[in-house]
Amino acid sequence: MADARQTDRHAFDLYETLRHGSFLRALAACVEAQIAPRLREIERIVERNQWKVLEAFRACGVSDYHFAPSTGYGLDDRGRDTLEAVYARTFRAEAALVRPQIVSGTHAIALVLFGLLRPGDELVYITGRPYDTLEEVIGVRGERAGSLRDYGVGYRAVPLGPDGWIDEAAVREALTPRTKVVAIQRSCGYDDRPSFSVDAIGEMVRFVKSLRPDVLVFVDNCYGEFTETREPTEVGVDILAGSLIKNPGGGLAKTGGYVVGRAELVEQAAARLTAPGIAREVGATLGATFDFYLGFFLAPHVVGEALKGAVFAAALLERLGFRTRPRWDEPRTDLIQRIVFGAPEPLIAFAQGVQQASPVDAHVVPQPSPMPGYADPVIMAAGTFIQGASMELTFDGPVRPPYVGYLQGGLTYAHVKVGVLTAVDKLLADGFLTPPTEGSNLTLQRENRHNIP
Q: Kindly report the CA angle at 196 between 378 and 179, in degrees rounded to 5?
């Protein structure tokens, strides 16, 4: 009986279950002492954003009858319409479209692009190539069935300059009389570049509008909501879009996406979701409204937890010799933590370690595989309650050089910490990191370098 009690006690101690638990316990303690000031800065951002959301709920008169579902056409759904008013007020925009019928961030972005662009118009991305899943929407890859290119919409992507900023000379040259929409991707996606802050996006908007005041500026806001105290619509962006199974869903939204911006532009996107003439007037909520309201209210806190986890991950991995972006002490404008592995095997092993620390499908062993919308095989750890929800702790990356993985999300800081430590423990056990030698101390281990080219 005493032995059973001892076994149970160890089962509730993370470090007792890890093969290199003693080393990782000491390392985590040093990291948490190091990052404590940065975590307090994140808490101040959370507080500001929590007030912003609360003020919108109060100003829009949210009441419990707004949580009632609608069916059929969804005509006169006051809960849906009030939720959209809450979003618009929070984002300091004129209007919003927040619907369970929007199936992903890619879908939300496609609604905007197809809503705004007409045959003969041109789309110009000024932050380099967009995220992989948009290439088939635009028509630069795949069968192009129903893509923008099929509808006669032109497209250019202007690479960033060597300093990571927009190439202003190239942008000036790329804008033509046909250019109707200039697009900015806030997050780095799978590119080797920093994500852009709201201030930086504001500078881009001012530059574009100085050249062409009539051009519409669109922002892919995925992964960025509530990471700062302002959103891109507060610095001149005309319209933006995102996913509810990322930041603004707060981990509760089971599906959905949103579009926020100038009223006439949101209406054009809504007409693509439903049909011209009915646009935002229809769309049953089918019981999703309560999760959308509560998730949005919790989103500032949940995003803060994920940001804290990303800071912990960066600091710990930097001590082990990995290159990360952003570094632990750099400003953050999205949830994504980029980690360079340099070879496919440690990338895959890290993903498998994160999966082992997942609440759902922890027994599954992820392997690289083709995925719809992606050009290369992708390794993905996603033991989430909601399929594909990157507000929950996930890790993924295309299996292509330089073999970079992307850690994002986490409903609680503690879970991100457990996931990262479990993944690092697997790297140590599989020989991709040099385990600490007998009697070595943590100070020496700070100079440890992974043996990956």
A: 90
Q: How far is CA 84 from CA 56, 66, 108, 289, 296, in A?
A: 11, 12, 15, 11, 11
CATH topology of domain 2-48+300-445: Aspartate Aminotransferase, domain 1 (3.90.1150)
Give Cα separations from 138 to 146, 332, 398 (angstroms). Answer: 9, 29, 20
pLDDT per position as a tens digit, 137-171: 999 987 768 999 999 999 999 999 999 999 999 99
Q: Is 140 exposed, middle or buried (0-12, 13-18, 19+ CB in 10 A)?
A: middle
Give Dmax over CA atoms of the chain in angstroms.
81
Q: Give 296-364 as a DSSP string.
A: HHHHHHHHHHHHHHHHHHHHHHHHTT-EEES-TTS--SSS-EEEE-SSHHHHHHHHHHHHHT-SSSTT-
pTM of the predicted structure, to 2 decimals: 0.93
Cα–Cα distances in angstroms (integers) from residue 24 to residues 200, 247, 320, 378, 427, in the given order: 37, 30, 11, 28, 12
**Sequence ranges of the domains in the chain:** 2-48+300-445, 69-297
Please choose, from the candidates 187, 197, 192, 241, the residue with its C-alpha nearest in 3D space to the C-alpha of residue 218. Answer: 241
* pLDDT, tens only, 198-232: 999 999 999 999 999 999 999 999 999 999 999 99
User: What gap in Å lies between CA 132 and CA 153, rounded to an integer?
Assistant: 19
Topology (CATH) of 69-297: Aspartate Aminotransferase; domain 2 (3.40.640)
pLDDT at 395 over 50: yes
Instruction: Give the β-pairing of 323-325 and 257-261.
Output: unpaired
Give 34-43 pLDDT, tens digit per residue: 999 999 999 9
Q: What's the confidence (pLDDT) of residue 5?
A: 52
Closest CA to 226 of 53, 72, 386: 53
Q: For position 371, what pLDDT does the model report?
A: 81
